[in-house]
Design a protein that fits this description.
The protein is of the alpha+beta class. It contains 6 helices and 8 strands. InterPro entries: Anti-sigma-K/W_factor, RskA_C.
Amino acid sequence: MDRKKILQDGLLEEYLLGELAVEQETAVSRVLQSDAELMAQFRAMEADFERMAFENAITPPSEVRKSLEAAMLQDEVGSSKVRSLDVPQRKNSALLMRLMVAASLAAIFALSSFWLYTKWQDSEKNLQVLQQQTTGLQNRLADIEKNYRETNSRYQSINNPNVVPLLLVGNAKSPDSRAIAYVNHQTKEVVVNAKGLAPLDADHTYQMWADVEGEMISMGLVSSNQEYVALAYIDKAESLNITIEPAGGNDHPTVERLISNVSL
């Protein structure tokens, strides 16, 4: 056996860790004793392993130390003679080296696993936040699209050539009120812009009525907070009327609280 074979087959590392068979270990030991350069390489490798082991060493639990002390004390009591172990010193060092390297690798693996787990947890949280934000944006876009379609539909309906705009001006009971009714007799649609009506308290609301041969028929409630309100179209209506009613509306108009009307 020569230096080339030892290096090519990785026998030097196995010799350091005590993993060679007796014959191979003896052969490598002989080459080391006769080859100063290979011995220097072996010493450097041994120093590197030892440095790595001490840098990453983990303090063993106190229970291990207590167990060893108890075992040693029992041996001293049971035997008056100290027996020497017939084990080569290099093998003891190699065993210690293997244990220290294994402990170091276990520590590195534990730290790496904890770091990866923490990063995974952070990624999960970030993903959940991103999903919630995406859902919120999708809902907002859906609302915007819905409002756009409704607004566009209202705009087209009031700008139709067949639409008749009617201005409802407030009387002495509500002189500052204004409303515009857009009536399409062909499509039988009525849209009211009620933004000009005076605000009411929470206990009252506006309600529009159609006068058909002296009978007042409800067309629906009108909110001053809405720009365009679609109401029921009533055939043969002679006039449109707005009254102030209790919140929720009424089944018959409160005539003394009529604030505006216009003839068709």
